[in-house]
Design brief:
By secondary structure, the protein is α/β, with parallel strands linked by helices. It is 40% helix and 12% strand. It has one domain: TIM Barrel (Alpha-Beta Barrel), CATH 3.20.20.
Amino acid sequence: MKPRERLIKAFEHKEPDRVPLDMGSPATSIHVEAYVKLKKYLGINKTSLRILDNMQQVVLIDEPILQRFSIDTRHIYLKPAKEWQKLPDGNYVDEWGIKYKKPEGSHYYDMYEHPLTNATIEELDKYNWPDPDDARRVEGLKEKAEKLYTSTDYAIVLNGFGECLFGLPSWLRSHTHFYMDLLSDKKFASALLDRILEYEMKLAKNALEKVGKYIQVIRVSDDLGTENGPIISPSLYRELIKPRQKKLYAFMKENSNAKILLHSCGSVYELIADFIEIGVDALNPVQVAARNMDSKKLKDEFGDKITFWGGGCDSQRILPFGNIDEVEKEVKKRIKDLAPGGGFVFAPVHNIQYDVSPEKICTLYEKAKQFGTYFLKG
């Protein structure tokens, strides 16, 4: 079975020949430090090193790696109109005006200044909103998607709608201020959310005009969970966030034949029915170590209504701290829980971090391919 066909069949909640494998999104990639070691271990040294996400320090996965692990997906990306700019103090600022620094000894960049922290509704009009119509965002996108579609059999995933209707406003406003807005200043929160929705709708229009007929999946992101439950109450989510997500996802589906893949970390069990209601076809990352996110429980309750994309191995404990045998055992368990009846795409819970050895990365994907064969019993 071809990769694209395999993924589509999994989305139809039918069993393909094996579980589709994913690698390479901003949540299924590899930290640059682990990636350098992996390439050396595999003897793949001629390819370039390209950062996909500056804050997380994860990479664009090179084609030889994707082929080495029989990955079924290929990810394409919208571009920012302006890359991170270095500030005089050595820190960075992105096109939204959010500032970042890398603390001494850290493996990641942290936000430390938010442009709308003290803004009023009136000042939203004065803010220098990035232009969703900037041609640089879709430069080369159509050509890449068309080539993948016509020259390969891979499933194509469009990325570029990261943290769009919950994460982004908290990054612009600061988490503290935005969460307070949702409770105590809903007029401001609504105005901010509407401006962001307008931006995302225009961005989606421009992207889908270029690649809507080629892609199979659109990846959107809004982290709504902590380790123990939703960040905000389900009722508040349903009042302010959910209707705007629904509008965006409906627009995306009207302008493509793609499925909607929502990335939402943490314990989001209480929101999964809502996700299904607003048109989410697949949920990533399936954070199996979080409260109420047991893989068997999720499959039993929602497995015929939503595809689980991820959850193939706990990346908080097993991948960094377990041994090879424990990684193998974990992969087998999660596939046994999530794969029956289709509706599962394999990836670890989240990005592979800097301290995961090449041997464990190889075991992860090799065993996923081995155990993901639907004809394999036991």
